[in-house]
Amino acid sequence: MNKNSKIDARRNPANRPSHYFDRSSLVQLLYAVTILFIQLALLQNCNPSKKPDPSLFLSTFAQESSGEPSNCIPSIGCGRVLGFDGWVEIQIGELPILLTVPHGGTRTPTEMGNRTIGTLGNDSHTLELTLAIREEIVKRFGKEPTLILNHIDRSKVDMNRSRNEAVDDEISDIFQANLVAYNEFHLFARAAKDHLRQKFAKGLLVDVHGHGQNENVVQLGFNLTEPELESDPNTWAGTNLHGSSNIAGLIQSGRMTLQEALIGDRSLGTLLTEKGFSAFPSRQMRDFASAADNQYFTGGYISDTYGSRHEGTLDAFQMETPGPNIRDEENFRIEYAKKFVESLQTFLEVGGYL
Ligand SMILES: [Zn+2]
Q1: Ligand 1 center to residue 230 CA distance, Å?
Q2: What residues contact residue 127 under an 8 Å CB cut-off, 6+ apart?
Q3: Nearest 5 degrees, angle CA 288-CA 294-CA 300?
Q4: Inter-residue contact 185 to 207 (CB < 8 Å)
Q5: Residue 156 Cα to ligand 1 middle (Å)
């Protein structure tokens, strides 16, 4: 019997000892069960984080302070209301002004998957800038605007995108916690829009962002393109250009023409530039063509979704602020907030918002 014959003989069940197959299988089974128990134990110890149930997130709102009926939204609460685990929040005010901050968060909850697709970087200090603007509004108007703040890092969720672009894969389990924050942010935004519609003839949403480009210009995005804004303004009245903008409600109200609202003496861009902060569009800057790698932001998902272009009377624009002289240091933020709110007040009064 050569070597091969010996192996062949063992493979033949008839030649095996009676206990050969059973003992081996039992050892393998015990080994597998032990490994399974160790893995389960490790899984429990390493992943103690709570997972929110997306279907129950409405019940998780935590109200920090009660408020007067004037700053309550029945479906949400009153005053300052937090979403699940404080990931997003709304501060309900009494003015027809809504400030949203989608890219100023820095929290990275472990239960949220990491995005790998799209823009992942935050707009640094936009949360602080918005709070400075809020302070100035309170000083100047004696009342509060409504704020919707996102505290989650953009590497986890992008609030200024449609739901299917907010995370890599909206179906995957990995991103369901991320989408809880997303759903709450937009639930707050829809509720705030409806609330303002019921209380005021019209309102204004300012979506606060920060850009990293070197042109040092405040970009105001009304959902009109750079070529449209740089075209001959005398032709605007004869077109439906205002209907494509997210200040369609203002133009339809007859308080300002599109030309007055965008590049007139009392437009936001013109007023900001007069106060030392170059802005586009404005009377002073009719051509944005600066360095070739600078991009003009026409506006994004938030201003487009809640602005008056589609329906309603909530006008909206995206405000892209530069870092130097505006966002990067506290004294800059306070100074910009002051000048912005001064400009905003003039614009709101002329536009008939107040
Ligand atoms: Zn942004």
Answers
A1: 23
A2: 101, 104, 105, 149, 151
A3: 85
A4: no
A5: 14
Give, in degrees to the nearest 5, the angle at Cα 299 between 142 and 167. Answer: 105
CA of 8 to the centre of ligand 1 (A): 71
Residue 114 amino acid letter: N
Q: What's the CA-to-centroid distance between 60 and ligand 1, angstroms?
A: 27
Tell how far the Cα of 25 is from the centroid of ligand 1, in angstroms.
60
CA of 291 to the centre of ligand 1 (A): 20
> How many A from CA of 268 to the centre of ligand 1?
20
| Cα of 193 from ligand 1 centre, angstroms | 21
- Give the Å distance between the CA of 327 and the centre of ligand 1: 13
Q: How many whole angstroms from 122 Cα to the centroid of ligand 1?
A: 7
pLDDT per residue as tens, the chain (354 positions)? 444 443 333 444 444 444 444 555 555 655 555 455 444 443 443 343 455 555 545 445 666 656 667 789 988 999 999 999 999 999 999 999 999 999 999 999 999 999 999 999 999 999 999 999 999 999 999 999 999 999 999 999 999 999 999 999 999 999 999 999 999 999 999 999 999 999 999 999 999 999 999 889 999 999 999 999 999 999 998 899 999 999 999 999 999 999 999 999 999 999 999 999 999 999 999 999 765 678 999 999 999 999 999 999 999 999 999 999 999 999 999 999 999 999 999 999 999 999
pTM for this one? 0.83
The DSSP-derived string for 174-220 is GGHHHHHHHHHHHHHHHHHHHHHHHH-S-EEEEEEEEE--TT--EEE
Give every CB contact of residue 168 below 8 A, 6+ residues apart in sequence: 113, 115, 116, 117, 175
Please state whether the peptide bond connecting residue 324 to the residue before it is cis, i.e. omega within 30 degrees of 0.
no
